[in-house]
Amino acid sequence: MTERLYVRQITENHWQWRMQFADGSWDDALNAGTLELLAESLSSIATPICVLIPGSSAVVRNVPVEGTEKRHLAKLMPYEMEEELIDPVEDLHFCYGHIENDHVNLVYLKQDDIRASLEQIELVSSEVQHLFPEYFVLNVSGVAATLVLEDELVMARFSNGTGFAVEINLAPMVLESLSQSLELEACALNIVADSEEGRSLLKTCLPEAWLADENIEIREQEGSFWDCIDDEVVNDPLNLRSGAFGRQLPLGRWWQMWQIPAYVAAAAFALSLVVNYSGYLSAKGEAAEIREQIRAVYQQAVPKGRKGDEEKRLKKILGKKDGDGKKGEQTNLVVMLSGLSKSLANQKGIHVSNFRYNGEQRELQVNIEVKGLGELGEFRELLASNGLESGSPRTSRQGEIYQANIKLKEKP
């Protein structure tokens, strides 16, 4: 078994998350909060994530399959169910299980609902491997159904793989409808709530036929949704993380990480273009004068010589090769900007007012603003961890803000 983090979406910006260890035990801490708090928690771990979306937005059904449909199930089934669906087929995402006894379990919901959940959590983690409706992970081992009451919501899962999540005032009607199509033989129903009053309320939602059947045992369990999760559900083929919502490269999160270095590099590139173009225009005029001087020297040395490529002919006369084969040392500006950008991303509150690069000395001179000398010391340590050696800064104070001039060099 693999260590896994279960993340449950309660509302648009309210999440719960809990770690399950490799031995099957659960972390005692059940965390809850906004997406920002979840992001802080995920920053320190890299385990697979199972996301549980609100069950009220998803429908799980067990439908018959004719022999001719099996090969083209994914293409035909949605349109055969079109009359039973409220939303257009094109707006829904379908996921299918294995065909057994000419029946198949399928789950469908709006693509926008999946997209809204995934886009939020993928900004903070790329490890989302499984996506299920919350009621789909309830454990039905040894029972015909498990029903959980949480606040005013009833979640249920049946041993045939179907289930639902509805408000408690609708639960009696839904269960009564299922009792007419779902035949329960000698079995047990697991009723779960965090109080005796809640379990009694949940029992009142059960159909009279089930309550009167002596072959049906009703078991009561004190607990919550998190006490009823099936460890093996991650192996079920009804994983909504499929098709158009399969795992993809986390481009959005990468961009958030690299946008500051990208901006700095773009600014440096634009600045270098301006400087280089000005130098090019100046050098172009000087080159024209030098070529005229070379031509004059060649005509003096070889008055009757053939014109054209006078520089090469003069070098041949003097017995010298074209250059000594050495190349100038490459600039380390990009490397130093990368180290600076990583340091800025890791420590908030540091503002760069300007910087200047000295190619001959291979050093970057940076002017920054910080709130205190302690933060300046921490920033220098970050620079060192990112491969940059900083000299003793020159500092000045303006009110509560310190201005510092630091010379950076790449570590040898």
- Following the backbone from N to C, one meets helices and strands in this order, namely EEEHEEHEEHEEEEHEHHEHHHEEHEEE
The structural class is alpha+beta
Return Rg in Å: 35 Å
Strand order of the largest sheet: 3-2-1-4-8
The best one-word shape is: elongated
Care to count the β-strands? 18
Largest sheet: 5 strands, mixed
The gist of it:
With 412 residues, the protein is of the alpha+beta class.
What's the SSE blueprint?
Layout: E1 4-11, E2 14-20, E3 31-33, H1 35-42, E4 49-53, E5 58-64, H2 73-80, E6 92-100, E7 103-110, H3 111-122, E8 128-133, E9 145-150, E10 153-158, E11 163-167, H4 171-181, E12 187-193, H5 196-203, H6 208-212, E13 216-222, H7 251-301, H8 310-318, H9 333-346, E14 351-358, E15 363-370, H10 373-385, E16 388-390, E17 394-398, E18 401-410
Parallel strand pairs: 1-4, 4-8, 9-12, 12-13
Antiparallel strand pairs: 1-2, 2-3, 5-7, 6-7, 9-10, 10-11, 14-15, 15-18, 16-18, 17-18
Helix pairs in contact: 7-8, 7-9
